[in-house]
Amino acid sequence: MTSLTHTLPLKEQVFERNGTRLAVIEAQDGRSLEESLAVLRARIESALSSDGGVLLRGFQPAGVSGFDRFVSHFGRALDYEFGSTPRSRIENRVYSSTDYPADQWIDQHNEQSYTRHWPARIWFYCDVASTRGGATPVADSRRVYERLSPSLRRRFAERGVMYVRNYGNGLDLPWQQVFGTTDRSNVDRYCRERGIEYEWLDDGEALRTREVCQSELSHPVTGERVWFNQAHLFHFTNLPQGLREALLDVVDEDRLPRNTCFGDGTPIEATMLDEIRAVYRDTMLSFDWHDGDLMVLDNVLMSHGRAPYEGKRRVLVAMTGESGAGKA
C-alpha cells in the first residue's frame, strides 16, 4: 500500500531574505487543507521549529469556517484580550487581522509582546487578496536580536520597557473595547491579576495603564534568544510627524494614546529606536498574498507587520497556545 506521503503532490520551497526564512508548502492539485492534515501536521511543526513560519498555498480555499476548523487541530484558539489595534470578531475566535486604515503601515511586531502574556502561535488566512500591496511581512526575531548592538540589548534588558496607554480620550481604542467590558470593576480585576498599574481619569471616563515588560526572551522550546517587545511601535515617534505634532497640540505627552519609555521611566533615545527600526527593515521578508493562502508563525521566533494596500483586502487571524513571561 502506498502511503499518503508519497501520493500527496506537494511542492516545497523557502522564501528567504537577509536571514529570515519562510517555508512554503504548495499543493499541486488544489485539494483541501483538511484532506492534507495528516501529512501537513508534521511538516508544519518542523518548519515552525526551524524557520519560525510556514505558508500553505494552492490548497482549496478554506473560507472562514474551514480556517477555524484547521486551526482547531493545532490547539484551542484564544480570545483577543487587551488588544492594541482595532479588530472585528468574524466567527468564534477568528478575527480580522486589523481594522486599521488601508493607507497605514503597521511596523514589525510579535503579537502582544507589549504584555507579559502572548499567544504561542498566530495564524493568518487570506480570504481576499488586495489588488495592490497589503503584504504581511515577516522578520525572524532571532536575526533581529543578533543584529542589534550588544550595548542596546543590554540597556533594554537591564531596564525593561514600560508601555503607557491612555484609553477613552477619543484618540485610540476605548477601554470598553480593549477589556471587553463596560464594568470598571472587571477592568480593576484584570489589571490587578496581571500586575498592570492603572488609574481612572476624568471621573472614570478615561483610563491610563502602565506595564513594565520584557525586551527579549528565550524561546521556551529551542532556548534561542529573541528580540521581543514593541518599544519602537508604541513610541510616539512612530506616528507620522504631522499627526504627532497635531496630537501634541491637543494633549500633553502623558495623555498620548500610547507611548514607551524604559522600565524606570527614563526616555528611550531616538537613536536606539532608529536602530531597531532599521534592523527590522533589513531583516524583513515580504511576499504577495494569494486568495486562500494560510500562514502560521511561531509568535516568539517570527514578527509580522502589514503594508498599505489598495482595493479590497480580507486577511483573518487566529491565535493559539497562550504563553507568558514566566518563560523569559
Care to give the gist of this entry?
The protein has helices spanning 4-7, 37-50, 63-72, 141-147, 150-159, 175-179, 184-194, 231-234, 241-250, 270-283, and strands spanning 10-17, 20-27, 53-57, 89-91, 94-96, 106-109, 117-128, 132-133, 138-140, 161-167, 197-201, 206-213, 216-218, 225-227, 258-262, 294-298, 302-306, 309-310, 314-324. The protein has 328 residues and is of the alpha+beta class. Strand 13 and strand 14 form a beta hairpin.
Describe it.
This protein is of the alpha+beta class and 328 residues long. It has two domains: 4-142 and 286-327, Double-stranded beta-helix; 144-279, Double-stranded beta-helix, CATH 3.60.130. The chain has an eight-stranded mixed sheet, covered by helices on one side. A four-stranded antiparallel sheet has the order 11-12-10-15. 27% of the residues lie in helices and 31% in strands.
Q: What is the H/E order?
A: HEEHEHEEEEEEHHEHHEEEEHHEHEEEE
Query: Helical content, roughly?
Result: 25-40%
Q: Tell me the CATH architecture of the largest domain.
A: 4-Layer Sandwich
Biggest sheet architecture: 8 strands, mixed
User: Based on CA inertia axes, which overall geometry fits?
Assistant: globular
Low-confidence stretches: 1-6
Q: How many strands in all?
A: 19
Strand order of the largest sheet: 1-2-3-16-7-19-5-4
Q: What is the fourth-level CATH superfamily of the largest domain?
A: Clavaminate synthase-like
- The helix tally amounts to 10
Rg over CA atoms = 20 Å
Overall tally of domains: 2
The computed structural class is: alpha+beta
Instruction: Assign the CATH class of the largest domain.
Output: Alpha Beta
What share of residues are in beta strands? 25-35%
N- to C-terminal distance: 47 Å
